[in-house]
Write a structure and sequence with these properties.
CATH topology: Glutaredoxin
Helix content: 25-40%
CATH superfamily: Glutaredoxin
Radius of gyration: 16 Å
Number of domains: 1
CATH architecture: 3-Layer(aba) Sandwich
Structural class: alpha/beta
Strand content: 15-25%
Order of helices and strands: HEEHEHEEEH
Organism: Chlamydomonas eustigma
Pfam family, one: Thioredoxin
Distance between the termini: 53 Å
Protein name: Thioredoxin domain-containing protein
CATH class: Alpha Beta
Length: 143
Amino acid sequence: MALPLPNTRNVLPPSDLEDASVLGVPLPPRKTQSHQIGPQMHGIRTDEEYDTFVESNKGKTSVVQFGSAWCVKCHEFFPTFYSLTKKYKSLPYAVAQVDTMEERAKGVKYSPTFVFLKNGKKVDEVLGKDAQKLEDHLWLHNT
């Protein structure tokens, strides 16, 4: 039996990931909390980690990149995104994996999608891997 192509609609929900026999491959243990990617960048895998990130950055504008492990554009653009985070240090950043999130990634139609949040509300969005456009938006929100 062929496995479906990876996309957010065919990915098993996190509760089913513990049953490695479903995939036929043993899976590594789930990480219980977000991890630090850089000085002000976190990796987010679950809705709870997303909520924690948003709550811990209330009052500030924060930036979340929504992408996935299989997204070639996300991988190609990540070094550029990471270098921009070093240039605009006042903003907190996160990279969210839409494959393992249930509710908070709904509505993300394009990968990568950069969402700017202020007090938990989306205030801006950049689609794709346009470095100049992303930098312009980072400059606007860098306070």
